[in-house]
Amino acid sequence: MADITTTPNATLTRLRNLLASPWTFTFGLLVLVALLDPPNAQPVAGFALRAFLGTLPYIAGAVVLIAWLKATGADAVIATAFKGRERRMIVAAALLGGLAPFCSCQVIPFIAGLLALGTPLSAVMAFWLSSPLIDPPTLLITAAALGWPFAIAKAVSAVALGLFGGFVTLALMRNGVFADPLKAWRPSGCCGAPKPGMQAPVWPVWQDPARRQIFGTELRVNALFLIKWLALAYVLEALLVTYVPADLIAGLVGGDGVGPIVLSALVGMPAYLNSYVAPPLLAGLTQQGMSMGAALAFMVAGAVSSIPAMIAVWSLVRRPVFALYLGLGVFGAILSGVVFQLVV
Known about the structure:
Blueprint (H helix, E strand, L loop, with lengths): L6 H13 L2 H15 L1 H35 L2 H5 L6 H12 L6 H13 L4 H10 L5 H11 L1 H27 L34 H35 L2 H8 L4 H11 L9 H10 L4 H13 L2 H8 L4 H25 L1
GO cellular component, one term: plasma membrane
Membrane topology: Multi-pass membrane protein
Family: Belongs to the UPF0718 family.
């Protein structure tokens, strides 16, 4: 006799996953516009489609790059940043944080392994602060949506924030703060995460069948991931440009003063959208009057306070260290926005 007891649960799980899918939100929003405002249905869909097609070359480059980094085993290079003198470790960790090809869940066991090996908290803080801000795929997506000057400013902000946070943490620890910063931690095995000290990366991945398989798998997975999130992002951007009055945006976060930048950083923390959705939406906001400095502050603060980034920190360190992480993130976001606004 067939066991049907799990069928309702499996059906509910599939239904929840379907309802939570970006595809459902994307098509649902387009259907709502068609039903509630038929004259704007075609302009909204056309705007989103044109924006998506304009980004397509960047998507292709990002997908190939991240698949290649995964297949090479480049995490071994990242691990070498955490060796040597503490000051050198901070600099290397901040520089390499933006290049780490890790998903959010992989950061947790990777960092935990480093901490277990005695890696200083200052170097880990530098990596933690820079890693959520930029990586090769999001650099390309940001450049496509907001231009290369903005993308470069975001990358520079990531490194600068990592350096600042690392050296602040070093100074605090040398003065007796954070004597026992870590929680107990047990490996979760999440995502088959890499561990520090892996074998050296193999750059010509096409010579190894196993690495070619990893490359193909990562290519498919990341292509689907980027396409579904960017499709939603551009539909949201189209709705923003169509329905949100420009003077409202300009009144809140427009202008050249520090006030809009501080407000954007504070709003960006709880309102974070992932690094693939945020650039198109910010492109729409800047068209509506948001200053570029405010846009950068929003993006930096949002990345530091994203749910995966905060979980990675919260799961490993005690509350005072977590509070320092958030404080450094907000301050760094505001400072980055102010400096970028002065430059542009």
